[in-house]
Amino acid sequence: MKKTLTILSLVLSLLGLASIFHDLSAQTQLEMNEEAYNNYKKADKELNLVYKKLLGSLNPKEKSLLIQAQRSWIKFRDSHCDFAAEEFDGGSIQPMVWATCLEEKTKARIEDLKASLQSRGL
């Protein structure tokens, strides 16, 4: 009886794991690529809101410096993520790696800009 319960418990555990993996494997690479890109676009929209809020609170010299910094940051982000994705050149995962990198770098930039807002009491 104890052996039967142990086997039953193991089977139920495996079924639980199988359902988790089924949910994960139900998504195609194309869908994962699209989801990663959509996550990046969402982060990019938030970045633009935070950037505009910060820009609106600055004097002319600070605005000019922030605009220059943002342009430089965009070039860095894009070239860094191009480099990160190049490792997977030609693979179906490459767009997901690229978009995920963009999202991560964008979220980090959002935090930088929020810190600037906070230091100005905004």
Automatic annotation (TrEMBL):
Swiss-Prot/TrEMBL keywords: Signal
InterPro entries for the chain: LprI-like_N
Range of residues in the leader sequence: 1-18
Pfam assignment, any one: LprI
Ranges for domain Lysozyme inhibitor LprI-like N-terminal: 25-113
Gene3D superfamilies for this protein: 1.20.1270.180
Residue ranges crossing the lipid bilayer per the database entry: none
PANTHER family from the UniProt entry: PERIPLASMIC PROTEIN, PERIPLASMIC PROTEIN-RELATED
Protein's UniProt name: Lysozyme inhibitor LprI family protein
Taxonomic path: Bacteria, Pseudomonadati, Bacteroidota, Cytophagia, Cytophagales
